[in-house]
Every structure is written in C-alpha cells, then in structure tokens.
Amino acid sequence: MEDLAALRDELIGAVEAAGDLPALDQARVAALGRKGRITDLMKTLGTLDAEARRRAGQELNALKDAVAAAVEQRQVVLAGRDLDRRLAAERVDLTLPVRPERPGRIHPISQTIDEMVAIFAEMGFAVAEGPDVEDDWHNFEALNFPPGHPAREMQDTFYLPDRADGARMVLRTHTSPVQIRTMVSQKPPIRIVAPGRTYRSDYDMTHTPMFHQIEGLVVDETTHMGHLKGCLVEFARAFFQVDDLPLRFRPSFFPFTEPSAEVDIGCSRAGGEIKIGNHGDWLEILGCGMVHPNVLEACGIDSTRYQGFAFGMGIERPAMLKYGIPDLRTFFESDLRWLKHYGFVPLDIPNVAFGLTS
Predict the structure, then answer these.
(1) Higher pLDDT, 228 or 161
(2) Is residue 269 left, alpha or beta, with left meaning phi > 0 and alpha meaning psi from -120 to 50?
(3) Which of 4, 236, 237, 249 is deepest in the core (most CB within 10 A)?
C-alpha cells in the first residue's frame, strides 16, 4: 500500500494551496471523491488479510478525517476572503447622490409620519422625541399605572435588565413616555406630537413586535374635550383627504386619561374591501381623552389650574388604509420590489397647502 504519511502531506498540501473555492473543491474531489486517491486505496482493502485490513482501514480512515478537516478549515478561510472581496466590490458610498437611473424610494412609514406631522404642525404642534429604552416610571407609573395595576396586563412588555440603581427598564410600549418627559421638562402651555417606534411582544398579520405610534398632547388652562374633538376631526379629514369624513367618539378607558374615548371613522366594507368615507359603517383608528389629573400631578403640574388632552394612534394602520397595503408584516421585510411599488419619491414632501401626496 502507498506510503500514507507522504500521501497525507501531498493531499493536505494541495488543500492548503487552493486559492479559491473552486480550486478547493477540485482538491477535495481528488482526495475524497468517488475516484479520489483515498477512495481508490479503500477499494484495495479486500485484497488484504484480516489483520492487515483492520490496520490499513484504521490508517485510511484517519487519513480521510485529516483531509476532510483540512478541507473544512480551508473552506472557512476562503469563504471569508470571498465575502470580504464581495463586500468591497459592492461597497456603496452613502454620501453620493442617488443615481438617476436607480432612484430611491421613501418608505411608506416615513412618508406617513411626515404627512401626520405636517398636518399637526399646521395646528401649532411641535415634534418631541424620547428614548426607545425607558424606565418603569416614565413608561407606566407616571401614566397612572401603579405597580400591580391590572391595566399593565394590557401591555405585552419586553423587560430589560434593571439598572444599577434598581430601576426597572423596558422597551417602551407606547410613545406616552415622551409626553411625561415633556411635561416634566417644560412648563405649560404645551402642544406636542411624539412619533416613534414602540415595542410589544406580538406578531401576526395585524401586529408586529416593533411598530410605530404618534401621540399628541396639549396642556393649558382652557383646553377642553371640544378642542380635542375639533383637532381630531380636522386631522382625519386632512389625512384621508375626505372633506365630509364622519368621526364617532365612543366612551372607553385608559389609565392616563379621564374621560377617555375611542375614535371611529366612517367607512364601507362592501365586497370585503374597506373604503374610507361617509358610507354608513365604522372603523376604529385611535384612542384619546382628557389628561388624568394624576398624570399632571406626577409631572409636577398643578391639576387644579391646568388641564389638557392627549391622543394616540398607530402609524402602520392608517398607512395601510390610505395606501391599500394588505399585510402589516410587509412593512418590515426589506423587499425592494415592495418598496418600489409602495414607496414615495424623495421630493414628494408632504405639505398641507399643496397636498400631502402627489
């Protein structure tokens, strides 16, 4: 039988000399393939006596394992090099302008946020932002969710490790903590909207673990429920571009507002298709109410002098309704074909005076 030590050095040397993946595969086939060197030697075992066959079989199996291990190690190295070369070749300079022949698209979520902000900006609202990772006080307790409050069970919360000072940390379940941060840091009058990402442990055709909300807050000495209603009526009609769009306010419960209401807009469900407008049916789009005195007091605002209203809605659902997008999950699947179909031209900037969309 052939000198196995010399054969081992030869085969492993060929593997280590392979400069790319095709060359490596050729070395593998030459050693381990059906007509490979080691395979041919395996076929000669039948000509040996029992003791010699046992000893030669062990040696050939050890050789086979050594060559296979060398192939696997070399494959990792060459695959890494290939990836590095491909990444370098496909590198994109994000500071360069978009190529005219390959125009980019604005994601429908970004476009919808801009549309909503444009409408509320016309009403005098400023935009406020806050962190995605919140402590329990801003996300729950200051919003009238004391520890053990049953309303906490309504939130499927992503809890994070506690801070060094013992504060319980969460991925915010709504953008309401931005309202709290604003009321703590600013004196009334306050008029802000807070768009941003929120997180809840849920995933199906109508829910995702990460989604977007926009909330509004007004705090002053004279605001009342009539102002809230007028604000939301004007917003819904401007956003959906339906001048006679009816809104219905139904009594509801939220820990942070009192009284509270859920808001429906007029629609039609004929033929299994939802059409927004004055068609005799209803569809819920948001929740709202007067800011609870406990929330004002938690933020250091005198509830005997000031009052206010708040509202909140998801951003994906209005976008789906307005632009006919059937499945919520497609917003987050990074499909360029989907974005090309539903996306917006970057210069198509929402403006109430000249139209939210072209």
Answers:
(1) 228
(2) alpha
(3) 236
CA 249 to chain centre: 31
Query: What residues make up the domain containing 59?
Result: 4-89
Across 203-207, 253-257, 272-276, the highest mean pLDDT is recorded for 253-257
Inter-CA distances, 241 with 238, 245, 249, Å:
5, 9, 20
By DSSP bridging, strand 126-127 and strand 190-199 are parallel
The pLDDT of residue 151 is 60
Which own/partner pairs from 94-103 qualify as long-range (CB within 8 Å, at least 24 positions apart)? Answer: 98/346, 103/345, 103/346
Residue in 299, 237, 302 with CA at minimum distance from that of residue 263 = 237
Q: Is residue 166 part of a domain?
A: yes
Domain shared by 77 and 128, yes or no: no
Identity at 13, one-letter amino acid code: G
**pTM of the model as a whole:** 0.69
Query: Helix-strand-coil percent breakdown of the chain, rounded to 5?
Result: 45, 20, 35
316-323 helix and 108-122 helix, angle to the nearest 10 degrees: 100
